[in-house]
Amino acid sequence: MAKCAVCEKGVHYGNNVSHSHRRSNHIWKSNIKRVNCKVDGVTKKLYVCTSCLRSGKVERA
Description:
- Keywords: Ribonucleoprotein, Ribosomal protein.
- This is Large ribosomal subunit protein bL28.
- InterPro entries: Bacterial_rp_bL28, Ribosomal_bL28, Ribosomal_bL28/bL31-like_sf, Ribosomal_bL28_bact-type, Ribosomal_bL28_sf.
- One of its GO terms (cellular component) is ribosome.
- This protein is mainly beta.
- The chain has one domain.
- The protein has one helix spanning 50-55, and strands at 12-17, 23-28, 32-39, 42-49.
- A two-stranded antiparallel ribbon has the order 1-2. Strands 3-4 form a two-stranded antiparallel sheet.
- The longest helix is centred in the last third of the chain and has 6 residues, at 50-55.
């Protein structure tokens, strides 16, 4: 799975817990997009999570 190039946020693992308290495995995927970004004046494609995009940690090309 892809990770954010800025904060390295990736996949989260845990359990789904039903009403009867039976547990099954579950994966939560982070909202990660492939974006054209400016890095040192050069345009590169990076995997960036949407929270980093909204906060302005990445400059889009």
